[in-house]
Amino acid sequence: THSAESRSRGAFILLEGCDRTGKSTQAAKLVERLQTLGHSTKLWKFPDRTTRIGQMIDGYLAKGEDLNDHAVHLLFSANRWEAVEAMEKHLSAGTTLVVDRYAYSGVAFSAAKGLDLEWCKHPDRGLLRPDLTLFLDMPIEESMKRGGFGEERYEKLTIQTKVRELFLQLREPTWVMVDATQSIESIHKELVHQSEKAITRVRDQPLQHDLWL
Ligand code: T5A
Ligand code: NA
User: Fold this and answer.
1) How confident is the model at residue 7 (pLDDT cuts 50, 70, 90)?
2) Going by fewer Cβ within 10 Å, which terminus of the chain is more open, N or C?
């Protein structure tokens, strides 16, 4: 049903959730599996700490450098805008992107620090909208027991509890909620199933540049 001229596009698949819920573990496995199944697929991650803006974010998150809350929010957003052309190029060329965090994290974390929710959403307006958002959810008390929790700035019980409430406020009807307390393999199977459905569903649809519009 596909003409030779119009190549199908890839899907924008987003993994979101609080810290240590297994997003990066699942993103890597999902990319590998989709590739094995014959889908051109690439892993993408926010914050992208490799760019100049990303290095400022890393200084703030991991090295204790202080920055104004509003300023750091805008850096996280700028770190997404600087990736837009490259993401579009891959998606249009038929590559599916598995994206580890996005603007929902951006808003949930900044609003948890007390910034106004609508102010927080504004800089990300007009970004690409994910085709599928897989939200990995589990009680904060459980994720705190996982390896590495507490190493970075936001990894504290009170902040994470607020972040989870804000994520649930930002939740859209299309989100798929995933029980992140399951085994790595069970979660993986669920994500592969959802992703394959999304890849098929959006292949002939235009890219959506209407986040929060
Ligand atoms: N942030 C981010 C903002 O404030 N604004 C923004 O705009 C954005 C994009 C860093 C911080 O930046 C904030 C949010 C964050 O606080 P990051 O770089 O994505 O963001 O953070 P990371 O530290 O890389 O990742 P997380 O802490 O969120 O962890 P993950 O990726 O959810 O979890 P993962 O896969 O590393 O697993 C954690 C541990 O659990 C185990 C793993 O082996 C690992 O030890 N694990 C499981 N154990 C049992 N059962 C399972 N099913 C498991 N799955 C994984
Ligand atoms: Na991660």
Assistant:
1) confident
2) N
Tokens of 100: 């580890």
The answer to the question of residue 85 being in a domain is yes
Give the domain CATH number at 150: 3.40.50.300
Q: Flag whether 210 is in a domain.
A: no
Answer yes or no: are the C-beta atoms of 78 and 48 closer than 8 Å. Answer: no
Ligand 2 centre distance from Cα of residue 34 (Å): 19
In contact, 44 and 30? CB cutoff 8 Å: no
Vertex 86: Cα angle to 134 and 176 (nearest 5): 10
- Say if 101 falls within a structural domain: yes
Mean pLDDT of 40-48: 98
- Per-residue model confidence (pLDDT) at position 44: 98
Range of the domain at 175: 12-202
Q: Is the pLDDT of residue 169 over 80?
A: yes
pLDDT at 151 over 90: no
Domains: count for the chain = 1
- With a 6 A CB cut-off, is 47 part of the ligand 1 pocket? yes
> How remote is the CA of residue 212 from the centroid of ligand 1, in Å?
24
Q: Whose CA is nearest to atom 40 of ligand 1?
A: 146
